Amino acid sequence: MSDLAVRFAERPTHDGSRIGVAMLNSPKSLNALSLEMIGQLEARLDDWAADPAIVAIWLEGAGDRAFCAGGDVVALYRSLVEARESGADRPAAFAESQFAESYFAAEYRLDYRIHTFPKPILVWGDGIVMGGGLGLLAGGFQRLVTETTRIAMPEITIGLYPDIGASWFLGRMPSGVGAYLGLTGAQLNARDALDLGLADRFIPRGRREALLDGLAEADYGDRTRRELRAAVQDVLDHQEDRREMPHSQVWPHLDHLQALVGRVDAATAVRRILDDQTEDRWLEANRTRLEAGCPLSAHLVWCMLERHAHASLADAFRDELNLSVQCCRLGDFAEGVRALLVEKDKAPRWSHVDAASVPQADLEALLAPLWSEATHPLRDIDNGPFTG
Fold first, then answer.
1. Contact 96, 71 (CB under 8 A)
2. Is residue 385's pLDDT more than 80?
3. By the 8 A CB rule, do 331 and 296 touch?
4. Angle CA(90)–CA(94)–CA(99) in degrees, nearest 5?
5. Residue 273 CA: distances (Å) to CA of 119, 256, 266, 269, 286
6. Which structural domains are found in the chain, ordered by start?
7. How far apart are CA 285 and CA 375, in angstroms?
8. What's the pLDDT at 141?
9. What is the pTM of this model?
10. Where are the beta strands (DSSP E) in 175-229?
11. Average pLDDT over residues 13-19
12. Contact call for residues 41 and 106 (beta carbons, < 8 A)
């Protein structure tokens, strides 16, 4: 297998057009999204957008376990540790934020590019789709899930918060659901993803090749953007098969979830969830995850959903960049990654005992702006049409 971070190919179609194929190529890390991957994807998408022969894009992950298990947070952690150990000639906060700023800015720019891409992007969300992987999936024209799909935003376990545009799209789910998912890092299956608007089609894993063959056999011709999308839809209609669909986990509990988190503050919602005695394996796993999670992150979930209830996606990404860098500089992110993914002792020393102990001043410090409107690294991302 090629050692390139992303493997690219172009698949010819029946009418002489081509489909661009991009495969995240780090199966050992469950295709964790590295800065190198982001740069390669961004550059190739620019090329494909300008190439009139490219009619659609197919994005997937190598291996059979994950599309993408999240951002490369271990690389972020190492950059923070190295900066703190060697940044004697620069202010520590400045040194610590440089890689974080570069990484998150590139990631969010790529995510927004997918949301606004002028040609159909089909994202094969097979296996694990978490954090940064969901950022890639969320903006696709057709977000394809299978019987193995497992989607989650588990940032509360590492002292971050649901980013990659989740501040925007979690708030557009049924009332309270996005807040519950953000607090608990709950895992969703394909049925849940369809119910909550995170996916468009269920295609059994075994039909992947047939689907790609069908896309190659389609007649795209000299079509408008709308007609190109219609041609892709026609192929998908013939491959969709919901007989292997897993049962919903969210929908049967909808009223209960809304009662737990509705019309309260973050600390009260956390306490309600932890005090809930409902006997259900999915709910119990969610409670366990929240109990071990970062108290500061629980408040950030709440803050960001409130701040972006009526904002644009571009504004949400800009605000997320600010907060994500601040979490690296001032928050619990480094400690969370250390405990879960580096030393793996699963004993994080969070900066607060529980959600009720988090002072407003700590939240205000994390939300304090790092850039002016004119100097923000993502000030230009809403210059194209938004298709979400």
1. no
2. no
3. yes
4. 115
5. 42, 10, 11, 6, 9
6. 6-367 (3.90.226.10)
7. 42
8. 94
9. 0.94
10. 201-202
11. 92
12. no
